[in-house]
Structure formats: structure tokens, C-alpha cells
Amino acid sequence: MTRVYNFSAGPAAMPLPVLERAQAELLDWHGTGMSVMEMSHRGVAFTSIIEKAERDLRDLLAIPGGYRVLFLQGGALAQNAAVPLNLMAQGAIADYVDTGHWSQKSIAEARKYGDVNVAASSADANYTCVPARSTWNLSPHAAYVHVTTNETIGGVEYFRIPDTGDVPLVADASSHILSRPLDVAKFGVIYAGAQKNIGPAGLTVVIVRDDLLGRARRECPSVLDYAVQAKAGSMFNTPSTFGIYLASLTFEWLAAQGGLDAIERQNVAKANALYAQIDRSGFYRNDVRRADRSRMSVPFFLRDDRLNGPFLEGAEARGLVQLKGHRAVGGMRASIYNAMPLDGVLKLVDWMREFEREHG
Ligand code: PMP
Prior knowledge:
The protein is of the alpha/beta class. 34% of the residues lie in helices and 16% in strands. The chain has nine helices and 14 strands. The chain has helices at residues 16-24, 44-61, 75-87, 101-110, 226-231, 241-256, 259-279, 308-317, 342-359; strands spanning 5-6, 67-72, 93-98, 115-121, 145-148, 150-151, 156-157, 169-172, 189-193, 204-209, 284-285, 297-302, 320-321, 332-335. 4'-deoxy-4'-aminopyridoxal-5'-phosphate binds at residues 9-10, 75-77, 102, 148, 152, 172, 174-175, 193.
């Protein structure tokens, strides 16, 4: 068996020990004689799995009391609808910060349900930065303020949590959740599709402050209603049981790495190595403002687009795969989530140097 270094933006590489553990337990989970996939979601065995998943996630992120953790389905894009349906009363207004592709998706979805004020946008800067908080034009009575704390395509990350006063801050944290500590108390809602740093696609984690439950609009689908799902322990409908199990194994793996402080140190080392190589000469280029450069999503361009094909081919031959940039922007993108070891990044850096020597 040869495992590659997989730089995919998501579904993304998972930690090898997690996959090995799942493999070992696949046919017979803890003497139950069945796979987690085959269990009743309401049985004793699965109840212990989902409860442990929640406990471990709470420990990792230091989620304070007064927040509920929901394990839902439908991805981050379902949450783009769930957020307004839960938090925006008829006729209310919500503020959104536009930092690129994924915030635009959130804005377009919210517009189906109410008034959206784009309080700030980095469009003028070609989406290469987080607009300074001092420039945000917030509505006085907004239902919430929505931010995309890591733009997976643009490679822009919030390293400061903006202060929005009494207005709940809502974050799509899909592509950097669990990559570093996050002060959950500053948020009303945090949501994330699992398929980058948590587990397989098909699971969505939602962390929601208690006082935001029970405000959903009448037309909000019950499966998306935070209060309904909180009351049902995320089991208003059958949850993504195997996804929750793999998430739970990932949380255990993260704790064994030393938790989020430790994984952040690894992520800083990985990102520094890659950006240093990108910046070393004019051959490669990343346009994001240094202070806002994502540690998870690293888009970069070669000096000459005609070199993209040969670069990707050579990378693939070295077991470095899925480096092709998003079709909307072209170039390359290295997603270096928690499960990407430093060694994978160093192998990529070596290849970038070699390629530059040949073609620079
Ligand atoms: N938001 C962000 C920041 C993302 O990176 C993605 C997926 N790449 C999405 C939303 C969409 O997530 P999903 O496909 O899980 O709905």
C-alpha cells in the first residue's frame, strides 16, 4: 500500500491512525459484533459514541457552558440557510462580511430569507485580505453578523475575532476549525462541514449559544431548527452515525497530539515553510496580505501558467496529489489541514525548489 500526500481542499486527508483504528473496528465495534454503520443510533453503543464525541469536542475547543453542540447533515451550505431561518425574524436585517467565494455563497442564500447588508467587502482588494473591523458598516439592529473565518479558495483567514458587541457573531469555520484554539464565547454560532478537519463529508458540526435557540421561523425545516435538534440530541432524524464515529476518533487523535495549542504549533511550522518557499523568489506567488494568509488553504501561482501542467505531473509522480487550484482562480492550492504532516509540506517545498531550478 502506498499512501500519498493529499493536498485536497475537502474531502481531505484524514489522520492515518484514525483510518487504521476505524479499519480495525470496522466489522466488530468493541465486541458488539457489528459495525458502527449497522447500529441503531438510539442504542447504548452509539449513544456512548456520540456522547464521547461531544465531550471531546467540548474539551478540545474549551466550549463554555451555555452552548449546544449539534451533529447535523447538509454541509455548511445547509447552514447558510439554517442561520437566517433560525436567527432572522421576518423583516429583520443581517450583516455579512464579504471576503470571497464562500461568504458570497452565504450572502446569496441569506437573501432568500431577508435583508442582507454587506457590511464590508474586500472585493476592491481582489479578496486578498480581511477588511479591517474599523471599516465595517454594521446595521444598528442586525439579527447577527456573519463571517467566513477561513476562505478556502482565496486563502484568507481571520486571526482576530471581530467584536460585534451585543449582536451575535456567526462564523462559517469549515476550513480552519480545530486548527488552533478559538474563543467560542465570542460567537453566537459556529458551523463547519466536517470534511476538512473533522472527518468525512456528510457531517456538519454546529455550536450554538443557548439564547439563540427557539427563535426559528415557522417555515424553518425541522431538521435545520437548532432548538428541535438540540432537544433531540441531534437525533430529530437519523444522524450521520459513521461520520460522528470518525469525528470522535479524530478528536481523540487531536487530544493525543496535545490538543489545539500543539496542533497550532505544527500548523504554523507547516504554513511558514510553505509561504517561505513561495516568497523566496519571483517564481511562485501568493497575493494574500501577509497578516491574513491562511494556515490551512494556501493558493499559489507559477510565474507562467503553461508550467502548471508539468508542475502537477511532477508532483503527482512524487506522491503529492490534488494540488490543482480551484477552477475559479486557477494556479495551485495546497490545503494543509491538521492531518497533513510537516513531512508532506517539506516534500512539496523540495519539489517546488527542484521545479524552479529546472524552469526558473
Ligand atoms: N464554506 C466553506 C468555507 C467551505 O470551504 C465549503 C466547502 N469547501 C463550504 C462552505 C461548502 O461546504 P459543504 O459542501 O459542506 O456544504
